[in-house]
């Protein structure tokens, strides 16, 4: 905005011209206005279009796309309904604020890389009776645990809905204005290993600080060679008591030995993770398996079209009725 080429800093030729025209308008007022009505209205509309062009320029310069999109409509309404200037200004400001929030959330949604379609609305809480829906909803509202850098750990066998629930909580938090990153743990660890090789691990971990919540999906899938580099431990240690982690795991803590290089580091990592944590156990059978079994057990949908066999049966029945 401070660049010498800025529209705000350019010599104000548009205004000068406009002032000239105002001068002329005054002269017409003192003479007969009826004699020259067409010229006057033409000048006003020219002045208006110059104003409009200038407003658009200034709004670009000030980076106010929300105001730019809405002001002609609001200005017309304001003129028509005779709004006080403060009301017009408040309406513009409110629109810009709402537009900025919407755009920010859209950006956060794109950067969060959440799996598609995993929402709290589509999560069937009845299938996981040991889960308190009220507790999950409170976690999805964020605030306290994210502000204090506490963690959320989801345990359970494969297919029980850990990834779905973790992603759904992440989505609700993004919608609420928080910054979230969803990652398969092995992918993220791989990225951090590359950073370590390039002597940039510290800055890579620091960059993740911008996320209020990091979702590490399937922590137990970290491979042996990944465990040996200990980047995961460094990440956990760096976020401890500052930034939250949501971790999903098929394996209970007792089997986390192979995620970290040695026993001492495993214990140190678990210690930091659980110090301020909510742990949700989702010990249910696989949802996919349950749905498949339910489908097999149910009588199935009636066929949309009659099958040849059924048509034969109808014909026989009809024949016997005659
Ligand atoms: P996990 O991560 O525990 O292995 P997922 O979250 O990947 O399990 O769940 C497997 C599939 O079943 C996904 O398509 C998920 O959307 C669905 N699913 C699991 N649990 C539920 C549930 N309670 N309600 C709705 N869908 C579920
Ligand atoms: Mg999963």
Describe the structure.
The protein has 14 helices and five strands. The protein has 322 residues and is an alpha/beta fold. It folds into two domains: 98 residues, no CATH class; 175 residues, P-loop containing nucleotide triphosphate hydrolases (Rossmann fold, 3-Layer(aba) Sandwich). It has a five-stranded parallel beta sheet with strand order 2-3-4-1-5. The termini are far apart. Magnesium ion binds next to helix 7.
Pick out its properties.
single chain; 322 residues; alpha/beta; Rossmann fold; 2 domains; five-stranded parallel β-sheet; elongated; binds adenosine-5'-diphosphate; binds magnesium ion
Any idea how many domains?
2
Mean pLDDT: 83
What composes the largest sheet?
Answer: 5 strands, parallel
Tally of helical runs:
14
**Radius of gyration, whole Å:** 32 Å
Structural class assignment: alpha/beta
Please name the CATH topology of the largest domain. Answer: Rossmann fold
What's the N-to-C terminus distance? 92 Å
Strand order of the largest sheet: 2-3-4-1-5
Tell me, what is the CATH class of the largest domain?
Answer: Alpha Beta
Count of DSSP strands: 5
CATH architectural name of the largest domain: 3-Layer(aba) Sandwich
What shape does the CA trace take? elongated
Q: Assign a percent range to the helix content.
A: 55-70%
Low-confidence stretches: 1-38, 303-322
The set of bound ligands, ions and cofactors reads: adenosine-5'-diphosphate, magnesium ion
Strand content: 5-15%
CATH superfamily of the largest domain: P-loop containing nucleotide triphosphate hydrolases
């Amino acid at each position: 905005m401070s660049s010498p080429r800025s529209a705000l800093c350019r010599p104000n030729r548009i205004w000068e011209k406009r002032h000239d025209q105002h001068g002329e308008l005054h002269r017409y007022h003192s003479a007969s206005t009826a004699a020259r009505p067409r010229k006057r209205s033409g000048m006003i509309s020219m002045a208006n279009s110059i104003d409009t062009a200038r407003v658009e320029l200034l709004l670009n310069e000030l980076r106010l796309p929300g105001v730019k999109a809405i002001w002609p409509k609001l200005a017309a309404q304001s003129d028509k309904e005779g709004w006080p200037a403060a009301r017009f200004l408040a309406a513009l400001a409110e629109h810009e604020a709402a537009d900025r929030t919407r755009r920010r959330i859209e950006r956060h949604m794109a950067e969060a890389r959440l799996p598609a379609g995993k929402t709290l609305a589509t999560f069937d809480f009845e299938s996981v009776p040991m889960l308190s829906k009220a507790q999950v909803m409170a976690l999805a509202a964020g605030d306290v645990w994210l502000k204090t850098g506490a963690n959320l750990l989801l345990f359970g066998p494969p297919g029980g809905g850990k990834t779905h629930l973790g992603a759904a909580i992440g989505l609700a938090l993004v919608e609420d204005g928080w910054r979230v990153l969803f990652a398969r743990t092995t992918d993220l660890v791989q990225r951090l290993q590359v950073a370590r090789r390039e002597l940039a691990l510290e800055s890579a971990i620091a960059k993740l600080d911008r996320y209020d919540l990091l979702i590490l999906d399937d922590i137990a899938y970290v491979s042996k060679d990944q465990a040996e580099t200990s980047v995961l431990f460094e990440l956990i240690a760096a976020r401890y008591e500052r930034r939250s982690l949501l971790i999903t795991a098929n394996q209970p803590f007792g089997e986390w030995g192979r995620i970290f290089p040695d026993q001492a580091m495993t214990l140190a990592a678990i210690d930091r993770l659980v110090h301020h944590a909510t742990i949700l156990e989702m010990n249910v059978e696989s949802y996919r398996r349950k749905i498949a079994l339910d489908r097999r057990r149910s009588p199935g949908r009636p066929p949309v079209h009659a099958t040849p066999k059924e048509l034969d049966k109808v014909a026989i029945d009809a024949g016997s009725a005659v």
